[in-house]
Structures are given as structure tokens and as C-alpha cells.
Amino acid sequence: MKYLAGTTAAAAPATSLLLSSCKGSPVLGGSSAENAMTLRQNPNSGDQVSLLGYGMMRLPQLPEGTPDDPQTGPFDQEMINRQVDYALAHGVNYFDTSPVYCRGLSERCTGIALSRHPRDSYFIATKLSNFGTDQWPLEASQAMFENSLKELQTDYIDYLLLHSTGGGGRDPETGENLSGLEVCQRRFIDNGLCDWLYEQKAAGRIRNMGFSWHGDYRAFELLLRLHDEGRYHWDFVQIELNYLDWFYANEINNSNVDAVTLYGELHKRGIPAVIMEPLLGGRLANVNDAVAAELKQRDPEATIASWAFRFAGTPEGVLTVLSGMTYMEHLEENVRTYSPLRPISEEDHEFLMHIAELIYGQKEIPCTACQYCMPCPYGIDIPSNFAHFNRCIREGNTPQSSGSPTYRRQRRAFLVGYDRSVPRLRQASHCIGCGQCQPHCPQQIDIPRELRRIDEYAEQLRREGGPL
Questions:
Q1: CA 163 to CA 132: how far, in whole Å?
Q2: Distance of alpha carbon 413 from alpha carbon 399, whole angstroms
Q3: 207-241: pLDDT as tens digits
Q4: pLDDT tens-digit series, residues 161-170
Q5: Is the pTM of this model over 0.70?
Q6: Distance between CA atoms of 362 and 368, rounded to whole angstroms?
Q7: What is the pLDDT of residues 437-446, one digit of tens each?
Q8: Beta-carbon neighbour count of residue 146 at 10 Å?
Q9: Which residue of 55, 125, 242, 269 is surrounded by the most CB atoms within 10 Å?
Q10: How far apart are CA 239 and CA 273, in angstroms?
Q11: Contact present, 38 and 339 (Cβ < 8 Å)
């Protein structure tokens, strides 16, 4: 198996650190009471942070047909309030949002829900999401920060992140693609934004400074080098970590770095890690029947998702694990998983590396439905196209041979399901390969190529068979 083979210099010690941390107490810096939420202490601020963090990226929406609310649009503020109340009552105190989440309304919805509670009962994390080139100038980024304070109804941000620091973009003058390193330099360093943010931290308007990273590893290295040189001190860093990305991120995403390396670089510096995508956009909760059977056989009482959450929460130095919990049942399940955490053992780790190998072999498109690629200028629903294709792979509905006895059933399931889940005008066939989506994908997916792959496969199925 891959995890026993030779790895990078950072991989081996990081693996041993993960396994050794399994042997310690599951509650670090928090209550050890039965059924209490596991807490982790931030060594920079002393904050006692819940191991489960609430990601406010996929908020519940109003029932279909309900008119939009004048203030919060299609989002169900009453349900958001109920879920936030439940989270706080069960020990969750870290809430992660952004100016760009939920059509730009996540901060507002989060602010409404949290402002009903004492300010010292929760930690707010939000981001400098200055993705547009018109937001790169210092004044525009400063305005974004000030608006975040307004929307969140607070005088200070507990955890402020430079958002998606490795993501690429386009030069505003030439239109040429820029690397993630170049964009990081322009968005945060050259314009003086980082210096200004640290001034705000000194003034008490930001309590902890950090960054989230996807994409160009050189941007990650740049920011850590600035930390090492003492120019900026990162109180935390947000990375993608799950048992599939632990050793397979590079293979899945071409240019991404495996999570074991990212974690190792943070751990050796003592920088707390905030974990995103523990389920890889739901992929590790919606595995195929064969993988699910192995997980259930090992622990019949555990849910499929809980394996991924336990893995993400086990490593030493992980501060909190984010989950975008749209539904109350997801919130309740995740609270149970971390109340308290049952760390992954060495044997569990070996088993999950085997499961990762099985999932990697399915060759799904590594989309997490983050929506950063949207809107498409030609109306294509990119995440829904990928979701249908991946679902058919998991369910065995991607027939390869018309001679197979199950071909007709599988063909019908793919094509009928495609038309039902993605309207014809929003399907992959309408992609012209403009590439505008490409620089924004945190997973470094070659989106036009994958859409072409889906379209060609669907057309092949339409040509080969008769009526559905």
C-alpha cells in the first residue's frame, strides 16, 4: 500500500506524529466530562476551541416556492438560528464564514444568529475574500474587512484568514493567467494589506491572524517563510485534511500537495491547524456499497462520516475541524462524534489508508461543491455535472461495454438521472472551454477537460443505445 512506501521527508514524521497523538487524552485543554465536546487550546491565544467547527458555507434554505426574505434572501434564518443555538448548547463555539459564502449573505445570516448570544460565548472566523481584481487595491480590501464587522455585528474578529492564498487568477490588464504565487503576492503582500491587518490586530480588532491555502504550493511556502523570518506571525493556518488527501491529494488534484506534508510543515512550527473538507465535499460520506460494507464491518455502530471526522480530529495540533452542516441531523451526528473524540488508533489508520486506496481507484472528479467556479458565463452548473458523474461512478452506473447484461439498466440510470439532476441547458455540452472557471478551483481540477469527458461519455451512451 502507498502509505508503506517511500514518502517525502515531511511525510514520515508527520505520520508518526499522527499515530502517537492517538495515544493521548482525547480532550486537550477542555473538560473531560462524559459526553462533553472535545476542546483544543490555541497556544497563541489560550482560546479553548471546540474540536467541531461550524462552517457557514452551506446554510439551510427556505422551502421551494417560499418568497425570498428581504434581508437574507433564500436562506432560512429561523432554521439557521435553531442550529446555531443547538451547536452552542452542545459545546460548539467556532463559526467560520466568508464575505463570498452563500451568495454573499453568509456573514449577515451568521451575524444575526450569533448576536443573540453573549459575545464571549463564541469565536468568529471570517476571511479576506478579495478574489476579484477590483478588490486587490488596499482600499477595496479594507472596505471588505469593515463590511465583515458590520455584517457580523461585532467590533472584532477572533480568527481572520487570508482566503485561499494559493488560488490563481487573471492579470487585470493583460488577461493572462497568473499563478497562485503571483496572485497571493498581489492580493496580500504588495498592496500592503498584510501590514494593515497586523495593525488592526495590534489595535484589538483582530485576535488571531492566519490564512487558508489551496492550489499553488509556492504560496504556502512563501507565507511560512515570512512567518519564519518574523515578518508575520501566523496564529493558525487552515488546510484541507482527510484520509483520502493524506497521501492521495497530489494524484487526485495534479498539483496539490498531500495533506501529510501540509500538516507536517505546520506541526514542526507549532502552528495550530484548522481543518477544512474532512469529508471532501461529502465524498467520504457517500462511498460506494463495497467501501461502506468494509467500514460497517469494522465498526457496525459507527456512521460512514464519523470515520472521516475522527481521522481529521486526531492529529496533534489540530485546533478545530470545520463542517458545513446544512441539516440538523448532520449537526447532531457530528456533535456526537466529537463529544468526546475517540481518536484513530494505529490499526484504524492503517485500515483507513486501505479504504483511501479503494476510493482513489474509482477515479472520481475531486469536486467539493465549493461553488468557487460559479457562475459560469455560459450557464453550466459545473458542480451538479460533476456530482451526477461521481454518483454514477459510486453506484456502478457508468457502463463500459454494451455487451454487459446490466448495460441497458446502467445506461438508463446515467442518462435519465443526468436530465433529472441537471437541466439540459446547464449540462456539460454547453462548455466552450473558455477557462474562466479554471483559476478559481481550489482542487486544481481541469474543469473544461472534465466537462468534455462527461459530455463525450453521455453522447456515447446516447448514440449506442435505443430508446430509454
A1: 12
A2: 10
A3: 999 999 988 999 999 999 999 999 999 999 999 99
A4: 999 999 988 8
A5: yes
A6: 16
A7: 888 888 778 8
A8: 12
A9: 125
A10: 7
A11: yes
